[in-house]
Design goal:
It contains three helices and five strands, in the order H-E-E-E-H-E-E-H. By secondary structure, the chain is an alpha+beta fold. A hairpin with a 3-residue loop joins strand 1 and strand 2. Bound molecules: adenosine monophosphate. Adenosine monophosphate binds next to loops. Adenosine monophosphate (AMP) binds next to loops.
Length: 130
């Protein structure tokens, strides 16, 4: 069965998309640690980061870097943090999180955003990738 993220890539489940190319896809995390919390995934469905083939792994890091630089321009923050967990969704994803404090990396404190806010943040980050 396809992962929830493969369904997002295929447009079967909605998301707040930020960017896409032939191999990678970036969209906002639906339960963000901070405004602008973004997930970057390979289109190829693989469970664990270090099981990716080397080319896909490097491609994912390069694509994540581009998205992180756009987040830094679009969202006021001290820097963009990166982490990979994957305990909830078994499809590799890089978390890019605009950081204000260490707490933003804890996954304990969440921010509530409405549909308009998600749309506006996604559009703003995307504009720095154009
Ligand atoms: P983890 O697998 O522990 O790295 O966490 C999975 C992440 O995916 C969590 O931060 C969730 O909020 C996020 N997530 C789960 N479903 C969706 C979805 N449909 N759209 C956007 N983010 C999601």
């Amino acid at each position: 069965m396809s992962s929830i993220f493969t369904k997002i890539i295929n447009g079967e489940i909605p998301c707040y998309k930020i960017a896409e190319n032939a191999d990678f896809f970036a969209f906002l995390d639906i339960n963000p640690n901070a405004k602008g919390h973004t997930l970057v995934i390979p289109k190829k469905e693989v469970n664990k980061l270090f099981d990716l083939d080397e080319e896909t792994y490097k491609g994912l890091m390069n694509f994540s870097r581009k998205v992180a630089l756009a987040i830094e321009k679009a969202v006021p923050c001290r820097r963009v943090g990166m982490t990979v967990i994957g305990l909830e969704v078994p499809h590799v994803h890089v978390h890019l999180i605009p950081l204000h404090s260490m707490q933003d990396m804890s996954f304990q404190h969440k921010v509530n955003l409405n549909d308009d806010e998600f749309r506006s943040i996604a559009k703003n980050i995307s504009s720095f990738l154009a």
